[in-house]
Design a protein that fits this description.
single chain, 282 residues, alpha+beta, four-stranded antiparallel β-sheet, 3 helices, 10 strands, 29% helix, elongated
Length: 282
């Protein structure tokens, strides 16, 4: 097994969990987040929801690497069936398409070069399509697309569709990953203490949570400490510069005094020399 970067990326994103309750906005409150927004994105990474290890993880795992579509090709399809016969009890079916393309030109407004599209249909019915990234239509902006189907029932069959639309190059390789119940064993690990299900620390005490209201105080203390260190360093630098200027000034004054003294000494010696020569001539 020698996977490329695309399936690794797809695997991590495919198992991400969107159970983040909120983010600290720095005002003693939390900002509510939702999947695929600028704060939560695809969610938090969860390896137990990304890969299959018998009895140790929550989901089964399927992947297809090195797949390729040419511009103008018909959609490629992949069939999967939900199988909970051996105890797997995962509720969701998650499918992620990822590909890697060359960099877009600087300043681009529509930066996706090779547009691949993912959608999923159930039990052969094309009338209902599951579109990626929380959208009700195709995604033509991102090179990672994820479909999550809540409550995938045992025995249900799903068809994964991947199609190429307006490729900038002749073809595009991609990776596809799916997680859900595919006949695997149930997770025997104790996950009752999952902090993302039980933790209320993100909620403020006023909202019934166990969080602290000292975020602002901590920020002020940290900023004040850093500011104090900066002021101290600047003060020390200025003091040293002042000392250097003072020493330079003293050295210049000493040189000037010595030069003036040497000049006066030379001027007083000349008349004496002249008088001595005059006496010799007489």
């Amino acid at each position: 097994l020698n996977p490329s970067g695309a399936p690794v990326r797809a695997t991590i994103i495919n198992g991400a969990k969107a159970d983040i309750r909120g983010v600290d906005n720095g005002s003693k409150r939390t900002t509510t987040v939702r999947p695929y927004d600028n704060n939560a994105g695809f969610g938090r990474m969860s390896l137990t929801d990304s890969l299959y290890v018998a009895g140790k993880t929550d989901v089964g795992f399927r992947f297809w690497d090195g797949e390729r579509l040419f511009d103008g090709d018909i959609a490629k399809t992949y069939e999967i069936t939900i199988d909970k016969s051996r105890g797997c009890d995962a509720n969701d079916l998650s499918i992620t398409l990822a590909w890697i393309e060359e960099g877009s030109p600087p300043g681009c407004t529509k930066c996706l070069l090779n547009d691949l599209d993912l959608y999923v249909t159930e039990d052969g019915r094309d009338s209902i399509r599951y579109h990626p990234n929380g959208r009700s239509i195709k995604d033509d902006s991102n090179n990672v697309e994820r479909v999550v189907i809540d409550g995938a029932k045992d025995g249900s069959s799903f068809t994964i569709h991947v199609e190429a639309y307006n490729l900038n190059s002749l073809s595009q390789k991609y990776a596809l990953v799916a997680t859900g119940c595919f006949g695997g064993e149930a997770n025997t690990l104790d996950t009752a203490q999952n902090v993302f299900r039980e933790d209320t620390a993100i909620q403020r005490p006023s909202d019934g949570g166990g969080g602290s209201d000292n975020t602002t105080q901590i920020i002020i203390i940290v900023c004040a400490s850093v500011g104090g260190v900066i002021v101290l360093c600047l003060g020390l630098a200025c003091f040293r510069r002042y000392q250097q200027k003072s020493q330079t000034k003293k050295n210049n004054e000493a040189k000037h005094t010595k030069k003036h003294h040497d000049k006066k000494t030379g001027e007083s010696a000349v008349p004496e020399l002249r008088r001595g020569r005059a006496g010799q001539m007489g």
